[in-house]
Amino acid sequence: MKFRVYVSFKEGVLDPEAEAIKKTLDTCGFTEIRKLSRGKFFDIDIKDKCKNKEDIVKKISDEVLSNPIIENFKIEKL
Amino acid sequence: MAKKPLISIIIFPGSNCDRDLIVAIKKTLNVETNIIWHNEKIIPKSDIIFIPGGFSYGDYLRAGILATKSPAIKEVIRWSKKGVRVIGICNGFQILTECKLLPGTLTKNINPSFLCKDIYLKLNKNNKLIKNISKEKLKLPIAHSQGCFYCEEEQLKLLQDNNQIAFQYCDVNGNINKDNNPNGSLLNIAGVTNLKQNILGMMPHPERAIDLQGLSDGKFFFEVLKQL
Q: Which burial class, exposed, middle or buried, applies to A24 when counting CB atoms under 10 A from its CB (0-12, 13-18, 19+)?
């Protein structure tokens, strides 16, 4: 079974890269943007024989893929 | 110094300040170091364990996170709980926060570029681990893109209340203000310790300031090794 894990910054955490992207888009004339944030995603295919697939993905997301001090994660079944 | 300290240095794929550290310790204290490859399962008894700077595992995923899963780090955690001193420099600091031996985290610099410059550091003489350094401030180089120290407000207050903030970026006169904050770190934080004050993480590189290019304050930093 395949899962997609989205990791993004928590509200209020400064992301200078997103700020730089927004500023560049402003420069390109895309002045309509109020706010821009960015994140990353991971596609994880769990072996069929595993019973607790969602728990495994949650544990991976919590312990490795995200930093709980500054990031949130969201899991989606594909 | 009554006896020479036993010093171990952990090396990961991508570490690049390990040799500088070995040379700096040899030059300043005439002490040989024990080199530990990241997949070694046992770290011999040490008085102090260093985690050097660099780009462990290419900084993939997040700086420091992949290194936290190595066997050597499990040993670092075990020894640190017994009170052994652990010092992480730059990427070593990032590793120590990622394995939760130190509070907070290091995020992208506020100006998202790689910083490579000399800075001044103000020392907190109430911090047990660094109190024996004979200077009030040090001039050291920094070289990082993810050095912005961040933690939640409650945690920040605890760091202040418990004297865990070891180093803060300052100006040449020791003043701490926004103008002397190179990377956007909260309270100009450049280095913190754990609550017990036996684990230190710091972004600046004392090992690169032994005798080159007029920078020599690094040798004062290594006085921390004399208090064992």
A: exposed
Identify the H or E element spanning B52: none
Place of tokens 């509200």: A11
State whether B112 and A69 contact (CB < 8 Å).
Answer: no
Of B98, B99, B151, B205, which is the active-site residue?
B205
Catalytic residue among B17, B38, B90, B98: B90
pLDDT in tens, B22-67: 999 999 888 999 999 999 999 999 999 999 999 999 999 999 999 9
Residue B11 CA to residue B31 CA, distance in Å, equals 18
Contact between residue A7 and residue A72 where contact means Cβ atoms under 8 Å apart: yes
CATH architecture of the domain formed by B7-227 = 3-Layer(aba) Sandwich (3.40)
pLDDT value of position B225: 80
Pick the CATH number of A2-77 from 3.40.50.300, 3.10.580.10, 3.30.1280.10, 3.30.1360.120: 3.30.1280.10
Q: Read off the pLDDT of residues B169-213 as tens digits, 9 standing for 90 and up.
A: 999 999 999 999 999 999 999 999 999 999 999 999 999 999 866
Question: CB contact, 8 Å: B29 with chain A?
Answer: no
Distance set, CA B74 to CA B2, B55, B228 (Å): 30, 19, 23
How long a stretch of residues is chain A? 78
**B144 an active-site residue?**
no
Other CB atoms within 10 Å distance of the CB of residue A8? 19
Q: How many CB pairs under 8 A join A and B?
A: 33
Q: Which member of A13, A16, A67 has the closest CB to residue B110?
A: A16
